[in-house]
């Protein structure tokens, strides 16, 4: 399958009957799947957006020097919560990824968008009323060398103090000024706090490659241009 073909995949823009969770079927000849061809509605925009990217020791050191904090998380408990959410929404937790439990919709299919830039997304989100509310690093117990940088953007107040401007610039330098081999965008339903959360997982930074497309917010539906 070519990159162009992969980047043509879009999830149906319609919500399911609950009006919140986005349809998992692929759109056909437009924004909707066959079942929602006459729907006319679109899934709601997220309250919170999580940008995640795996980083090597060099970038970890830069982020630590910039003041990025570490977060400790229980991955097993997180997977259990995701599985419970999926069951509540009458979805198979491992229907998309056998190794991870998911309750949301993969916007660009299970393989994600390929050869993609996110250079314009932050400005789009700032213009839409989102702001950066937290930046942190975390590490899975099985990997003590690499880590994940996570940037949280939200329209809602949070318990965290927004990171310093210099810290934000250091992190976005990594995220924006490059091509990513893949971007996996997940449109999830409501979490335990009642907020709709979307996640953008950025995989394999390719600093010397020219991206084929750019991720755009598209009012919370996400698209490629």
Strand-helix topology:
Layout: H1 3-6, E1 48-55, H2 57-65, E2 69-70, H3 75-88, E3 105-106, E4 113-117, H4 121-127, E5 131-138, E6 147-154, H5 165-176, E7 179-190, E8 196-206, E9 213-216, E10 223-224
Parallel strand pairs: 1-8, 2-5, 4-9
Antiparallel strand pairs: 1-6, 3-7, 4-7, 5-6, 7-8, 9-10
Explained architecture:
The structure is a single chain. The protein has 225 residues and is α/β, with parallel strands linked by helices. The protein has one domain. Helix content is 20%, strand content 28%. Strands 1, 2, 3, 4, 5, 6, 7, 8, 9 and 10 form a 10-stranded mixed sheet that branches. The radius of gyration is 17 Å and the shape is globular. The model has no long low-confidence stretch (mean pLDDT 87).
Order of helices and strands: HEHEHEEHEEHEEEE
The average pLDDT score comes to 87
- What is the strand tally? 10
Q: Return the domain count.
A: 1
Treating each run of at least 4 consecutive H or I residues as one helix, how many helices?
5
Overall geometry comes to globular
Low-confidence parts: none
Percent strand equals 25-35%
Distance N terminus to C terminus? 19 Å
Biggest sheet statistics: 10 strands, mixed
Helix content: 10-25%
Radius of gyration: 17 Å
Global structural class:
alpha/beta
